[in-house]
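For the sake of transparency, this paper describes our internal protein records without simplification. Because each token names a local backbone shape, the row as a whole describes the fold. One such record is reproduced below, unchanged from the form in which we store it.
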Amino acid sequence: MKRVVGSYHPHEEEPYMNQRQLDYFESQLKQWRTQLQQEAHDATREMREENVRAAELVEQSLSEYQRRMTLISHDRKSRLLAQINAALLRIKEGSYGYCVETGEEIGLRRLLAYPAAFLLVEVQEAREHRSRSFANGVG
């Protein structure tokens, strides 16, 4: 696969999901994944170090709060990593850039804003609406 060179940026005047665009998004996703993996590694290391240092009650409470926030962040990053890996798989399979529910083009703007997107905005909003309705006991 040919690597993206220089300052290439996908634009809507070119064919949708051509090889340059696919290479661009693959590169973006891999960089994002590497960054998230490094952040997760750093957070895990910091939590281990905090366990050794937390001695007093107030310090322990603060440490526990920070640990919870770190775990929440870690969980969010884990879900994001799964989405990134799924997007990379879709690039390999040839389905990247298309909604997994409708098969329609997701669009460059959405992918540039969120390269791991796998749904049309309308489909994502409908899912979120159903989820909120279910959580509130409606529907």
